[in-house]
Amino acid sequence: MLGWRQRWSRLLWSISGRLLLVMLLISLLPMGMVVLYNQTESAEMMKRLEINALQLLAIGKARSLDHLFQDALNDALLVANDSDVRYFLRSGSHSAIEQATMTNFLEDVRNLNPAYYQVILLNRDGQAIAGTRGTRLGLDYKNTPLWQQSATANYFISRVKINSAIAQRPLFIVFQTIVDSNNERLGAVLLPLQATAVKDIVTYLVPDIHGESFLIDDHGLILSTTNPHLNLHSIDPLPPKIRDHYFLLTLPQPISPVAEVHYTLRNVFLKAKSKQVGALLTSPSSQGDADYIYAYAPLTRHQGVVVVSVRLRQFLAPLERLATQGFFSLLLVGVGVILISLIVARSITKPIRALVSAVHALKHDQFDQFDPRVLRQYAQGSDDMAELAQVFLEMAQAVEQRQDQLEEELSELKIEIDQEKRKKSVAEITSTDYFQELRQRAQQLRQRAHTKSPPTATHPQIRHTEDDERENDPHDPPLPT
Fold this sequence. Notes:
By secondary structure, this protein is of the alpha+beta class.
């Protein structure tokens, strides 16, 4: 019995196996290459599209924050240019009516935007003399970084105040200096902007993008983010002098740095500080980060940058599902090709097997026992196999006729050979010395008998007849004369 390797080799190198292999290579190999190429090109195209989409999203967030800050600066400038506000700051004492009027005016300004927490009016000494919340009156801002920064800039937006005497929630302070016609300082207006309004812009993501978004200032403090565990954390530990700027009229407190696993965010932050729009594609690292795309865009009205990140697997998931469907489609095509190959191979090998059986029967001289109808049914068509079957049947008939003819000729040749052998045997016998001696002795005996008794009229005839019979018998040696 054949081993499994031999059986497998015979199956593989049979017509069915080779036909199946060829059809699989012809159908599946190009299709598989096309599927793989399309998968690779689609992944690259989706990466480029996703990078562009994230960059546009980061730019959109940055521009929205710029508009928010610019609107706040415009409203603060509106207060600073109001003549009643300047008159209120020039006068040293204020009646209750003037105080109420100014409070109502500031309240109207605060109502311009729900993101405003309140509006505070400071005199030239840095004290709060009016505001929408009376409990904040009397606070002294003269020794704060806000007042110190106003010496070099007439208007600006401060860093986020993590904790302050104005509110317990984080705030951005819009600072606007108020001067008279002689460009002498009369005071300033503070417009605290709630950090929640900034967070609403930063944390908004379009529905088909699932990722993270960050607003980071120039010192690396995460002002707002979709990840609550990283909110108001610093990229790196902050020096005490810088840390104090994040607190207003309150004692400074520690600011926790982000965990080491977010080291990629540090690299993105360093690139984003260049004030250019860009993107960064990361790969899995030993720290546990996965494949991410980071897009960033700087702010123009504030020292900060917007960063948007998304995991590659999230937006490549539809492509992976499409690749899985393509794989199953390829598998179904492969099964179909196998079935078609088996059917085609059977239609080819079945007449070949019948032809092989006929050849074996002809080889072993058993073609008369072979049913020619088995092969004749494949000789009815007009294809190559039909032509081969027809030629083989004609050849088999010719071989049978040739064999019958050869058998007849062989019989005749056998008879001739037997006669030649007899003649040769007789010649060998008559040519021996012993036969010649016997012949001479027979002649002598005939002579003696002839001299002793004359022959009668009948004896010669009788002897002549016997001699003729002996000569006519090919099996007896001739008598010596």
